[in-house]
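To fix ideas, we give here one paired sequence and structure record:
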Amino acid sequence: MVTTRLRSRPSLRFGWLEQTGVLLAISLEGFRKTWDVRRWGAEYIEQCWFVARVTTLPVMLIALPLGGTIALQVGQIIRQIGAESGTGATVVQALVTQVAPMAAALLISGAAGSAITSDIGSRRIRDELDAMEVLGINPVHRLVTPRLWAASTVGIMLCSLIIVAGVAGGFFFNVVQGGVTPGSYFGEATSLLQLSDLLITLFKAWVFGFIAAAVACWKGMTCGYGASGVGRAVNRAAVIAAMLVFAANYVISTLAYSLFPPRI
């Protein structure tokens, strides 16, 4: 099994190439049993509730200032050229295409990912993963698969929530404080967007959630023994997940702009 091979030697002695292979092996092995929903369905619902519970409030607290900051900075520039009505379009375009999926991914990796790493790491140092294998249960299928899908599902939901909250924050700074009429703000809000932009954004949120959960599970299952080992794994999981999310965002955005050029 994958987990048996992981414990053959300490994770700190792995080379970076071997660690990449282990991450891919855990991710693909967890994805392979997706069809067997009966085995992980209950854990999936529980993990969805957990991830949503620890990320919803921080998302709201971040999304409102994000939308307001974008609206404030863009509004200052647009106001100088006399195109205040275009602020809504700019805010919504930035939120939908870039800000929302990235913010959701970073919160999932920072809040939920840390909890996932510490949970699986604690199971590892208590030898619960070995006990599951003795009972004939694959720990990757039982623990990793539901967390991968839970983080991906909640990532899509959080992305939608960030867009709504960000648009509300932009409305406050532009309409209430900036003097832009509500009709101009919402009338131009969708002028730069296409259906493909929304679909790509939701796809990004799904991929980023999957990456965050995969890294968290990987570091938890390969952490060093002891409390210090789990702590180091949590810290590294958050950093690695953020780096991979930024890299994936660049790749997906480049392909998206090549296949679906922005509308002017």
